[in-house]
Amino acid sequence: MSSPVKLDSMYQEIILDHYKHPQHKGLSEPFDAEVHHVNPTCGDEVTLRVTVADGLIDALSWDGQGCSISQASTSVMSGLVVGKQVTEALELESRFLELMQSRGNHVVTEADEDVLEDAVAFEGVSKYPARVKCALLGWMAMKSAVAEAQS
Amino acid sequence: MALDIAVVRKDFPILSREVHGVPLVYLDSANSAQKPQAVIDAESDLYANHYANVARAVHTLGSEVTHAYEGARDKVAAFLNAPSRDEIIFTRNITEALNLLAYSFSNATTFPGASRFALGPGDEIVVTEMEHHSNIVPWQLLAQRTGATFKYLPIDEGGRLVDKAIDEIITSRTKVVSFVYQSNALGTINPVARLVEKARSVGALSIIDCAQAAPHIVLDVQAIGADFVAFTGHKLYGPTGVGVLWGRRELLADLPPFLGGGEMIETVDLVRGTTYAEPPHRFEAGTPMIAQAVALGAAVDWVTGVGLDNIHEHGAEITGYALERLQAIDGLRVIGPKDNVDRGPTISFVLDGIHPHDVAQLLDERGVAVRAGHHCARPVCVRYGIPATTRASFGVYTTTDEIDQLVSGIQKVQAMFS
Fold first, then answer.
1. Which residue of B lies nearest to A131 if distances are taken between CA atoms?
2. In CATH, what number is assigned to the domain containing residue B22?
3. pTM of the prediction?
4. Are residues B236 and B145 part of one domain?
5. CA 20 to 30 Å from B334, out of A58, B2, B172, B352?
6. Does residue B274 share a domain with residue B137?
7. DSSP for B153-184?
8. Do B99 and B121 fall within a single domain?
9. Residue ending a domain, choose from B265, B281, B304
10. Which structural domain, as residue segments, surrounds residue B247?
11. A9: exposed, middle or buried (C-beta count within 10 Å: 0-12, 13-18, 19+)?
12. Which residue of B has its CA nearest to A20?
């Protein structure tokens, strides 16, 4: 009847694991910038704080509520960008955005895995346009928070 | 007479398709109902064999299509037991029907003979906390335009209107009471007679959103006694693009127009100004949704043929079964009336620790289509302190087997997240 392969395509262990054990969740102080992003179609929200020093993301913390995709994606993003240069983080963001906008036509390469690590698990989400915004929520919040911190 | 659901289902071609390799289980009829072949055929036949514009043409096709379009009006009038066919206005959907009223009311301030509809500072508009956004936002906009005050009747923990608030909030200052017959988010059926009577007793206009009620409750506008009743075609097994506003004739006669354009006029004069057609045409500016109105007529015929009483009975049975099975699931909480009394075939619920969007997505992988979100009734979610619900809603074609598949799907989702 139902095919567990398809379920796995979107709800891989990685996503469920991050959902159940989110990284960098829980707002911390001090911070240079705080943003609050909402996905109006489903009500997912994230509040995100960053500290940026010498072009480096020193610290990032967040809190939010929403579906497993939005929460897990924010967790994965956090793990990826903390300790990285803002320029690197934004490069990751555009690479992830590209993956999400691929409508399932992007073949994940080893190069993708090297760079995006756990974030490649969200590849399956790109087939579901209604959910792409969920996966992007935390990334967009990070992008505006670092911009604000640097302004 | 109990319905033979297997026979009813054969009328709906889409019900034989598969999604993700499994048979479709469509539990989203409150969002939009599927279409029987008769409705699909009616729209197609009009385009294939009779199409031209209505009212304007003197040729044969023009006369055939006008006959079909006006025939649909007769069918809807009979469906609502309206005293006159001229009380039936075709709109794009129920959202447009409610906006038509709100905008016509604000035009009343400067329209001769329409002062009974005019609102201003000190006047109040009352809705309920369980309204769809389409019965909130037009009234907030009207309040903004006129200086009137927007108010709402609160709901209790169980998803019902707080009865004593009805007498406290609807007062001599109230000019409009607009409420939903059956909540799309909770399934609650409201005390319609009480609300209509209360509105009448303070001299307020009463308006009923029947979008959810029309597909399974007999709507007799004379028995209901409200001033305006509106519903939409696509939830009544009809096509998208057509809705209906019914209004009492003496009110429509004085109601200012909303949209101006062709066919809604009597005489247009560039110097002396324009005079307007009598209802319903005053409210149907421009080329209308001809094929859709005709197909709505076919939907009304189809529903009447199956029998609204039978449909209602079937909906109540399925709802009773679903309430029992769903509430037996650990960690599932129904949002809205928990018993099968004064409620329609729509059940909203939340699962501990699992977001409705995950529930809906994973159910879809098993062919089960439900809706997740705030169902365009965000104040309901705010009221219960939840971001969203998962909603299963049933139609004339829903079977107990499908409820079983919903239940086993939910259990599998829970297992994944456990």
1. B357
2. 3.90.1150.10
3. 0.92
4. yes
5. B2
6. yes
7. E-B-TTSSB-HHHHHHHS-TTEEEEEEESB-T
8. yes
9. B304
10. 40-304
11. middle
12. B417
Give the residue extent of every domain in chain A.
4-150
Cβ within 8 Å, pair A43-B374: yes
CATH number at residue B268: 3.40.640.10
Q: How far apart are the first and last CA of chain B?
A: 44
Q: What is the pLDDT along chain B (418 residues), one digit of tens a residue?
A: 578 999 999 999 999 999 999 999 999 999 999 999 999 999 999 999 999 999 777 899 999 999 999 999 999 999 999 999 999 999 999 999 999 999 999 999 999 999 999 999 999 999 999 999 999 999 999 999 999 999 999 999 999 999 999 999 999 999 999 999 999 999 999 999 999 999 999 999 999 999 999 999 999 999 999 999 999 999 999 999 999 999 999 999 999 999 999 999 999 999 999 999 999 999 999 999 999 999 999 999 999 999 999 999 999 999 999 999 999 999 999 999 999 999 999 999 999 999 999 999 999 999 999 999 888 998 999 999 998 999 999 999 999 999 999 999 999 999 999 8
Same-domain check for residues B294 and B337: no
C-alpha span between B280 and B141 (Å, rounded): 25
User: Pick from B21, B22, B355: which is nearest to A67 by CB?
Assistant: B355
Interface residues from chain A to B (CB-CB < 8 Å)? 1-3, 6-7, 10-11, 16, 19, 41-45, 65-69, 128, 131, 134
- Token code pair at residue B96: 């447009």
Q: Which of B232, B244, B200 has its CA nearest to residue B87?
A: B244
- Choose the final residue of a domain: B304, B331, B360: B304
Find out if CATH 3.90.1010.10 is the number for domain A4-150.
yes
Closest-CA distance of chain A to residue B312, Å: 31
Minimum distance, in Å, between the CA of residue A1 and any CA atom of chain B: 6
Name the domain count of chain B.
Answer: 2
> Nearest chain B Cα to A16, which residue?
B417
Helix (H, G, I), strand (E, B) or coil at B302: helix
Same domain, B247 and B385: no
Residues B388, A43: C-beta atoms closer than 8 Å: yes
Answer whether B82's CB lies under 8 Å from B221's CB: yes
**SS3 call for B263:** coil
How many residues in chain B?
418
B365 and A6 within 8 Å at the Cβ level: the answer is yes
Q: Is the peptide bond before B280 cis (omega within 30 degrees of 0)?
A: yes
